[in-house]
């Protein structure tokens, strides 16, 4: 991948993360949400866990399979404490017990992941003029190493890198970090570039 292609992927990441943050802001009915400039990197699978605090760090991961004209996977991840903050904002509460999630919390997290991923994929679809749909989201709360082993095993045979977009959302004094991991197949990467004339 040359620098121009990476710049294009970075821009797609910026737009996608911006649209996803807007969708989250609308979901949370908050005018106080601000988003920092996303950080976009192309990382080896083996480095993904370090990005989110290490292989043993407990995270919430929401995984979707990409379908349509693009094949691959997309994952949205948050550290457990960030997920609790988002739920607090959504439920308009001030809970400080971050030990466990209720069934309602889990349902809300799944829907948040669905909406964020939908907004992100919609922006890619619009930019590339390609039909991209996704599977029903699958959510897991586990150590980062365990969650990230799923795409690594599935797509390690067709590539060794993933596009990672770190976005930080600020609501009042609370900063929440979310990580989008986009893993198209190599053929799908080529399709995305071709659709943009590269």
TrEMBL record:
A Gene Ontology BP annotation from the UniProt entry: chemotaxis
Gene3D superfamilies: CheC-like
Annotated ranges, domain Chemotaxis phosphatase CheX-like: 62-142
Entry keywords, A to Z: Chemotaxis, Hydrolase
InterPro entries: CheC (IPR007597), CheC-like_sf (IPR028976), CheX-like_dom (IPR028051), CheZ_family_phosphatases (IPR050992)
Residue ranges annotated for the CheC-like protein domain, each copy included: 7-41
Residue ranges that the Swiss-Prot or TrEMBL entry lists as coiled coil: none
GO molecular function: hydrolase activity
Superkingdom of source: Bacteria
Protein name (Swiss-Prot/TrEMBL): Chemotaxis protein CheC
Organism: Velocimicrobium porci
